[in-house]
Specification:
Order of helices and strands: HEHEEHEEHEEHHEHHEEHEEEEH
Radius of gyration: 20 Å
Oligomer: single chain
Strand order of the largest sheet: 4-5-6-7-3-2-1-8-9-10-14-13
Strand content: 15-25%
Number of helices: 10
């Protein structure tokens, strides 16, 4: 099951999801195949795990900034880590995080023009230890060394104690687990091998940011948190009545896209087979249209407009847009597990 205190793991940008302030069409979203698009590179840098993947999040920052400009951080929230002074924000091409039963592993794709020696010089000067992992390098330090090196504002270096540098792909791998960093650098947990995750990605081919929970336990977690983190028994009973549970499924995902000056999103639930998805789309659409968002104290239709619902193979796909002009709160809902209509 995914870590509950997501706010301590993720750095969400303030505001609501990308408003339609950009130009043109969508640009280079995720691909479920084995190509060289940013998300395919990110998916190869995952640690091996006996627990399976609980959570994978990815944002193609290069595509987002290209579409909406450098001020996108004022416009909405997508998955984004605080950028340390070790590399400028302008050199970050993409970011991802993988959680699979242990310490989160964050990966950062840097532009090919960024001088990776800058990382080595800074961390060596701070007395980080250096070790080789195949053709890559890992720099490690105790928390006291990290804090001493972090500078007056605490942002000069990553807060993670292990910093792996993969020169071939211009990728930095960050975690507090040495085992996880080394495993990710060796591509031992390549996410392309996760059939549920790659299946969930198929309808999200144009998304610039995705959040994926490729495990059947996710819908049960939605039940536990459908009324918030500390609800009263009365609220839990009311939520259970207002938002009935649906049939179980194998995994859940969201994706967000800015295209032609408009922000849209997708919600995907992956079922065991095509027949289950065909039955599930009717059930989940009804639960969405009649459901109450107890975390916001109102119907889900006041938060998201359901533009379409369909079964696509094993996937149930909801196309959504802002219920109110200029706001699409999918990622905020993701952080709060606020999808009671998808519970089981």
């Amino acid at each position: 099951m995914r870590r509950m205190p997501r706010a301590t793991v993720l750095a969400a940008i303030a505001g609501l999801l990308l408003t339609g302030c950009g130009g043109g069409g969508s640009d280079n979203g995720p691909s479920a195949g084995g190509g060289h698009r940013p998300i395919d590179v990110a998916m190869t840098y995952a640690p091996k795990s006996t627990h399976g993947v609980e959570d994978f999040e990815f944002t193609d920052l290069h595509a987002v900034v290209k579409l909406v400009g450098k001020e996108f951080t004022k416009l909405g929230s997508v998955y984004h880590e605080e950028t340390p002074g070790l590399w400028p924000f302008g050199d970050v091409e993409w970011e991802a995080v993988t959680i699979s039963g242990g310490e989160p592993v964050h990966t950062v794709g840097l532009s090919s023009s960024f001088d990776l020696n800058r990382i080595a010089r800074k961390l060596k000067a701070c007395r980080y230890r250096e070790r080789k992992v195949g053709g890559d390098v890992v720099y490690a330090a105790s928390q006291s060394v990290v804090l001493a090196c972090a500078g007056d504002f605490g942002a000069d270096v990553p807060l993670q104690s292990e910093v792996g540098v993969a020169r071939a792909d211009h990728v930095v791998v960050l975690s507090n687990s040495s085992i996880a960093v080394e495993s990710a650098l060796r591509h031992e947990g390549d996410l392309h091998a996760d059939d549920t995750l790659t299946g969930l990605l198929e309808p999200l081919a144009d998304a610039q940011s995705v959040g994926i929970a490729p495990a059947p336990e996710y819908c049960q977690t939605l039940t536990k948190l459908m009324a918030g983190r500390d609800p009263t028994p009365e609220i839990v009973a009311l939520a259970d009545k207002e938002d009935p549970a649906g049939a179980p499924y194998d995994g859940f995902a969201i994706g967000t896209t800015v295209s032609h000056g408009k922000a849209t999103g997708r919600i995907v639930m992956r079922y065991a087979d095509d027949d289950a998805a065909s039955k599930g789309v009717k059930e989940r659409e009804q639960l969405f249209r009649s459901g109450t968002d107890f975390q916001l104290d109102g119907p889900y239709t006041d938060v998201l407009h359901l533009d379409g619902a369909k079964a696509d193979g094993r996937n149930v796909v909801f196309d959504v847009s802002p219920a109110k002009p200029g706001e699409l709160s999918l990622y905020e809902m993701w952080l709060k597990y606020d999808f009671a209509f998808a519970r089981c």
